[in-house]
Structure formats: structure tokens, C-alpha cells
Hints:
Blueprint lengths: L1 E5 L2 E6 L3 E6 L2 E5 L4 E6 L10 E13 L2 E11 L3 E5 L5 E5 H8 L5 E9 L2 E8 L5 H15 L8 E6 L20
Parallel strand pairs: 11-12
Antiparallel strand pairs: 1-2, 2-3, 3-7, 4-5, 5-6, 6-7, 8-9, 10-11
Amino acid sequence: MEWLKRGKLLIHILKPIILEFFWDSFIVTTNENEELHLTTLSNKIFPLINYSSEDNVHVKTRYNNSVLSLSKINGKIRNILNIPFRDGDVQQISTIFFDHVLKNYSNIYSLHYRQLSKGIRIYIVSDIDLNLESLKTYFDSEILKEFPKMNSECIVLEQMNQEPKTVAGKSKVMLDNDIC
């Protein structure tokens, strides 16, 4: 059993990973999109009122509107992609999963994503010309280990010369969606 203490919020981690919340000055809730929100009950210098963590979660136990435990943290809402499966289902998967798969491949140092109407496009920045056919074979074999029913044909890999940036000059993870 492992306990993490953050201020007056205690998080109990069980095996398999289930997060349980015990608090004396926090309320943990979710909105209609299962996005985790936090509210402090104390009158501190900087109270949190319905503060969004931007994390998409699966609630395991709820009492009224309060979240008591989580069974899964999917990732940041802004970095979740809708991925088609061969059985017609569409699953929400975090870009972090694809980051871990592709960053194990040599010479890849930046990844960017675009949600398409029937899949995703992953833009890869590398300092060399990549053999995309070989990379796609590797990529498909790795993702299908975790998600055997994923329709890997709906995921397109494309190499870019430059990393896309925001107006502020930061690296842009999610590119504008293509709704065609």
C-alpha cells in the first residue's frame, strides 16, 4: 500500500492502479466529459474553485457528485485522439501512448497530431530522412500489441521538416483538426 500526501489531499494507490481520494479540505468532482475538477474548502491565499486538471478520467467510486476513487486516468483532454477500431468502435487514446511508441524509434525527436474525421495523422520531425514504410511497419506492430482491434490503416505517418509552433513560439502538439 502506498500513500501520497499533497497538502491535505491524500491519494491511496492500490494494485492494480486505483486511485482513492481522502480529503479534509478538497472536493474532487468531474464534469459531463469526465474531466477531473478540484475545489478547496479552506480560505487560503489562493483557493481553487472548480479548478480543472484537464485530465480525462474513469471514475470508479462516486458519492453524490464527489469522486472517491478512479480506475483510470486517460490523459489531458486536449491531447486525446479518437481512434477507429476494426469492429466499428471508436476509442479515445492519449497522444502519450503514440509518443512512447514512436520515440523508441531512432532519430525521432518531435511528434505532432491532427485529428481527421476517420483517423489521425501523426507528423514526425527528425534530423534525417526516415523510411516511412519501415517506420509504419514498426509502428503498427507496436500499437497492435496494446490495442489488437485498432484500425492502424486509419493512422497516417508523415515526416515534417520543421516543428510547428504556436504564436508564442512553443511546440504545438495538436494541430488544427481536419473536419473533412
